[in-house]
Amino acid sequence: MIFIYIGLGACLLIPVLLLLNKRYMNILIERRIANYQNNLVARHCEEVENIYKQMRGWRHDYHNHIQVMKAYVAGDQIKTLDDYLSMLNKDLTSVDTIIKTGNVMIDAILNSKITIAQSRKISVNAKAVVPKILNVQEVDLCVVLGNILDNAIEACEKIIDEHNRFIRIYIGIHKELLYISVTNSVGGEIIKTGRSYLSTKASSSHGFGLVRIDRIIEKYNGFVDRQNEEGVFATEVMLPL
Fold first, then answer.
1. What structural domains and CATH numbers belong to the chain?
2. Residue 89 CB: number of other CB atoms within 10 A?
3. CA distances, 114 to each of 3, 65, 97, 236 (Å)
4. Contact (CB, 8 A) for 122 and 166
5. What CA–CA distance (Å, rounded) separates 211 from 198?
6. How far apart are CA 192 and CA 208, in angstroms?
7. SS3 32
8. Rounded distance, CA 239 to CA 222, Å?
9. Predicted model pTM
10. CA-based Rg of the chain, rounded to a whole angstrom?
11. Residue 205 and residue 8: Cα distance in Å, rounded?
12. What is the 3-state secondary structure (H, E, C) of 118-142?
């Protein structure tokens, strides 16, 4: 009888252990996703700070540029002055704000990512109009936009011919929804299993990024759709305002 009692106890204990193990694994996954999110936000902040440093540096040199141009004018060196102005215009364009939506967080994310994309020889066409106040927490919006654009940039970088690299961004309001659309060219193979897309990256951060996006969309009762055709990938997100 004792033997049977122990055997039944073990049988009852197995489901409990499995449940505890499942909960433990979920906790580990949640921690990894949380760490990934924190690192992502930190990277975004660093990217924005780099842009601001460039802008502050240009402003610091403003008076020096004025003195140089005055010297060219005084020396009647018009061609040299024209070349100098062209250089300054190119430099200013690289640090000027590209997108002004009226929402500080979206502006910061878009401008940092667009600057990175252009520095990597990716053509970017962006249009964004959003309300100043959104129903989405800033950190959540940071994760969604940041991940989508990071994935788009990475996909474009795999294309050898730089002329074929492009990202199209549209953010606006549609029927009381915040609508986000990102379309980009793709280099390399896109793997799809069921309704989900898998990354060809060696690191697992991409996968955590997709999971995080989907969870945030679900959190706000939103909608996400991913589609791909030959050489093109598109992501659409809708979040209630």
1. 98-240 (3.30.565.10)
2. 10
3. 69, 27, 10, 18
4. yes
5. 11
6. 16
7. helix
8. 5
9. 0.64
10. 25
11. 43
12. HHCCCEEEEEECCCCCCCCCHHHHH
pLDDT at 1: 46
Query: Residues for the chain: how many in total?
Result: 241
In one-letter notation, the amino acid at residue 68 is V
Rounded CA gap, 88 and 90, in Å? 5
pLDDT number for residue 204: 46
197-200 contacts, C-beta under 8 A, 24 or more apart: 197/226, 197/228
The residue whose two tokens read 């540096």 is: 57
Q: What is the 3-state secondary structure (H, E, C) of 34-84?
A: HHHHHHHHHHHHHHHHHHHHHHHHHHHCHHHHHHHHHHHHHCCCHHHHHHH
Which sign, positive or negative, has the C-alpha torsion 15, 18, 20, 26? negative
Which amino acid appears at position 97 of this protein? T
Residues of the chain whose pLDDT is less than 50? Answer: 1-6, 8, 193-194, 199-204
Distance CA(157)–CA(84), nearest Å, equals 32
